[in-house]
Structure formats: C-alpha cells, structure tokens
Fold this protein.
Amino acid sequence: MTVSIRGVRRAFDGVTALDAIDLEIEDGAFVALIGPSGCGKSTLLRLIAGLDRADAGTIDLSSEARGEIGFVFQDAHLLPWRTVEENVALPLELHGVGVSDRRERVRSALRDVELEDAARKRPAELSGGMRMRASIARALVTRPRLLLMDEPFAALDELTRHRLDERLRALWSSREKKLTILFVTHTIFEATFLAERAVVLSRRPGRIVHDAPIDLPHERPASLRSSADFARAADALLQALEKGAA
C-alpha cells in the first residue's frame, strides 16, 4: 500500500498541529516519523488511518479498504477478561471471520511475534513486552498492508525495547507480502535501527524538516548498534531533530 499526502493541515481549537505536510510513502517501505513532543506525529497517523479528518489537503491510499490498515498504540489496550488468543482474534470476530479460519490466522499472528506459548494466558499474567507483542499480533491478524505504530515500545525498559525492535525489523524483512510500516518514535536510535527512511517534523506546527534514507544495510543484527556507521546515521537524525526543535 502506498500513501500520498498533499498539503495536509490540522488544527485543534485554533492551534495548528500540522501544516503543509507533503509526504509520499512507497509500498513496502519502513518509515520512522520523529520530532519534538506535540509536533503532530500521532495526529498524522490518525489522519492516515481515517480516525480523524484534515482541515486542508488530501491523503490518498492505493487502497481505500480501511481493513487493510493495522494500528498499534502506545498502550496495548488488551481486554483483561480475554486470553491472548481471544484478544488477537477480536478484529476477526468483529469482521465475521469463521471460526476455523480465525483460529489459523490467530496462530499465524502469534507465531509472527513469538507468543504461541502465551496464547491461553490473560494480560495480567504477561510482562509489558509480551502485552505489546500481543497488541502487534492483533494488528497483524487482519493481514494489513499498512501498519501504523504510535510509539509502541515507549513504556518498556531498554533491553526489552531492543529485543522488540529486532523482532519487528525481522518480521518486516521476512514477510512474503509487502508490509508498509510508518513508525512514530521519540528515540533517534530506535528510528535509526528500524527504518529505511526517516521523516523529521518541526515543533508545532509540525512541518517536515528532514526526509532522507537511513544509510545502513538491509540486514541489521544487534551488533550494528555499536558500529561507526550506525553512530553516523543516528547523528544525522539528531542534527535534523535539533533543527526541527529550534
């Protein structure tokens, strides 16, 4: 799925959150969206998902089927009375998918996030990282072509966050069908490790001040984080972020 954004503006109670946003996201891309707090990153995701409407400009998707968009929020938002597999199955239930197909798709989504062993557990029995993996599985179970992720790992400890970054990157790289990901983060190191391209917004009103590829290999083992190439790529993002915050 491709996303084409032209001249988008969004204001709330007279305060402009986003202004003059022009952005093209290609099919199969992994794009990180970073910027200062309050610059409109989450607002832009909601506009793309159709959860909000722009005051000006257009957002065009290569497919108008909203069922082909998955959304992962910062909080896992799991229903506490349902097991992991029941939480993951919920979108399929709401779409009327049959029981047999539903079970197979839930199993596949749990395999994708390495959570099969926790299928019968309830959210209270899970760690923070496991709850977030369940949330990602719930987004993947509908087989989306576009995955929007709004700081999903922000509340996790650094080690857990690194492991989930590695798992997400591997999942995106290995999927047979192209998956387009737009990932919001405050962390330049996370953006550098995960994405093929970074888009940096200025402070409010959010405008694009940097849009460039991340010059790193497609294969990204954990050891890459300690390399000179990684440090240079992260420094370029830091400079862009500082420019946007100025």
